[in-house]
């Protein structure tokens, strides 16, 4: 992406003169010798100023797309038996009908994806050792809220910003009071979510600040790209997992003169995404298996891969920060008044979109842990503790969201960076 230019004060922007303005049809000005009026040009109208993105990005995306149409992602044709879809009149007509829907899925997804690209571009440029996890998370989330023009459940952050470090692979974001600082030798996973009308763009990348683990990052990014390339309508999820595994396991990392194989984390996976539901029911595992489930036309998937220099298996470890109200939450009596009140707050502000404790702090909730834990124990809210490999291991993550359109596959989150 092009680096955002600094915002100019409107008084400092010179007026643009249009030398091709038409002359006024009516006589105006000084009278010449024959009594005819000397004609003058019309008063010049200043050209409409183009919006300029701020640094950090805080100018709403609609200012740059006043027609409400957002750019599509990378287009990949379907392979082999599905290549006919690209030119099929029937499939093209079906896609046209979807596109003309005023609540089109495509445009909502693309709006979320464009926000993601701009916010992550700034994050990749500015995240540096010495910053706190809270500082990094809040900068990303403030940018997301501003660009998506946050409006309750219509448009918002899609889930808490993941900033998992080193052996922690997923589901860590700082809680209030967290003083953790990013260090030179750290491997940082940055997982960002943006949602528009329930359509979530889910994409992640990994940063490291020395070259020790470059091959780990290369392996995981290559595995994600394999998953994206090989995904398609009628592809079996178990077979796709095998292709991802094969790519990742072809890499090694040299640490302290010792070669360490890169292992896919076997109990993490990519996933389908449904309306207001980050995990939609289908899973793209990272190790070959016998799952015969097929990808289908219209499916929306997060192709998400994790690699490790450790055992390749994660367990829950550490203080929980991530939560989400369950889609199929049971209707059970709540004995705590505070739990009833908190559930009302969750329903109003997040619905089934994942949230974290910082988000509850932000909207004015306090002393809510007892109520929150009660909602978890009653099966109404799911908690998602950090997921960690063994101590000393390093983990990496890359992720893209793809849309299986009737005619082509669209990698909606693809950008110039990854």
From TrEMBL:
EC number(s) on record?
3.4.11.18
Please report the name of this protein according to its UniProt entry. Methionine aminopeptidase 2
Write out the ranges of the annotated region (Disordered): 1-103
Task: List the NCBIfam families.
Answer: met_pdase_II (TIGR00501)
Q: Which organism is it from?
A: Marasmiellus scandens
Q: Does the keyword Metal-binding apply?
A: yes
Per the record, the gene is MAP2_3
Give the residues the record marks as binding substrate.
171, 279
Localization (cell): Cytoplasm
